[in-house]
Amino acid sequence: YVALDGTQAAAHHRLGLLLSVFDPDNALPELMASAKLDEAYDPAVQSMRSALNLASLESDEARRLVVIGRGLGLVREWALARVAFQRAASADAGNAEAWAWLGEANQHLGQDGSGELRRAEALDPFSANVRALSGLYWKRMNDPQKALAQFQWAAAIEPKNPAFQAALGDAYAFAGDLPPALVAYQRATELAPADATYWRTLALFSAQYFFQVEQVGIPAAQQVLELRPDEAASFDLLGWTYLAANVTGLAEENLLAALRLDPDYAPAHLHLGIAYLQMDKMEAAREHLLLAQSLDPEGAEGQAATQLLALYFP
Q1: pLDDT at 102 over 90
Q2: Are 127 and 96 in contact (CB under 8 A)?
Q3: Whole-prediction pTM
Q4: What CA–CA distance (Å, rounded) separates 21 from 43?
Q5: Cα Rg for the chain, rounded, in angstroms?
Q6: Which of 25, 134, 244, 268 minimizes the number of CB atoms within 10 Å of its CB?
Q7: Mind giving me the DSSP string for 195-258?
Q8: Are 233 and 264 in contact (CB under 8 A)?
Q9: What is the pLDDT of residue 6?
Q10: 306 has pLDDT over 90
């Protein structure tokens, strides 16, 4: 297809993804060509570029394929990711992470995945990644205690990894145990103080559960804004935490700032609509809820806006 018509970005992109598994040395030029033809492909191309570069550093075939498969999963190409993990497990049947990631891919494709995860745990019970993937499995199965046990393992195996501390916080919150969840989230920010991701996670936890919002949530959101001052999401987060603390004036101020940076940012419209409901500014609330609904009709923000519109404006 590419030989016949080299102007189709989708064809270059698909070929690049296929080559990532079957001929990774030649994948990147096709991926880069797709992004050059259509910038919408750029985020996925950059993710795959990082995965391919990391994979090239691996001398072991199975580990190389696991890295590529993880990259494919990151861009939601789970069918191809499964092929990569299957090839990794075939190259080295003793690679526990290959089996664990194969189980993860199978779950994304509507299969169970537990058999592969059990095999991975048997091969390497002290792999933090294997334990974390098992924890995700039990979260999906709605078993908070089993999920928590797996994430506790992961965090104990790699206590200085902020990602596992944040995942442990998620697991505690999922189990309804908020104080240790807060400790885990805070530990993640201590391990990676310059990474806005973990401050954002801490602020969201505090706001969503109305847990120590003034003491923890607002300062965490302020830290996100300091690290990422040019992003609408940063102002939206700070506005949302102020709203959770019932400081509606500062909530409105920051949510409007988010929309000045990105007028089409659906979460800010949703949160501003909620703020105006609390402030009894009903017409303004309706306007922003309708915008959130139209900007994100299939997503979480759009659905939340739809529910609020039905409730307050039947």
Answers
A1: yes
A2: yes
A3: 0.88
A4: 19
A5: 22
A6: 25
A7: -HHHHHHHHHHHHHHT-SIIIIIHHHHHHHHHH-TT-HHHHHHHHHHHHHTT-HHHHHHHHHHH
A8: no
A9: 87
A10: yes
Alpha helices in the chain (DSSP H): 9-22, 27-37, 42-56, 61-74, 78-91, 96-108, 114-123, 128-140, 144-157, 162-174, 178-191, 196-209, 218-227, 232-244, 248-261, 266-278, 282-295, 300-312
**Residue 254 tokens, joined:** 């920051």
194: helix, strand or coil: coil
The tokens of 274 are what?
A: 């909620």
The answer on pLDDT for 31 being more than 90 is: yes
263-299 pLDDT, tens digit per residue, is: 999 999 999 999 999 999 999 999 999 999 999 999 9
CA distance 106 to 91: 19
Residue 244: the pLDDT is 96
Q: Which two tokens stand for residue 21?
A: 């598994």
Collapsing DSSP to helix, strand or coil, 136 comes out as: helix
Residues 39-48, mean pLDDT to the nearest whole number: 96
Give CA–CA dist 241/226, Å, rounded: 15
Total count of residues recorded for the chain: 314
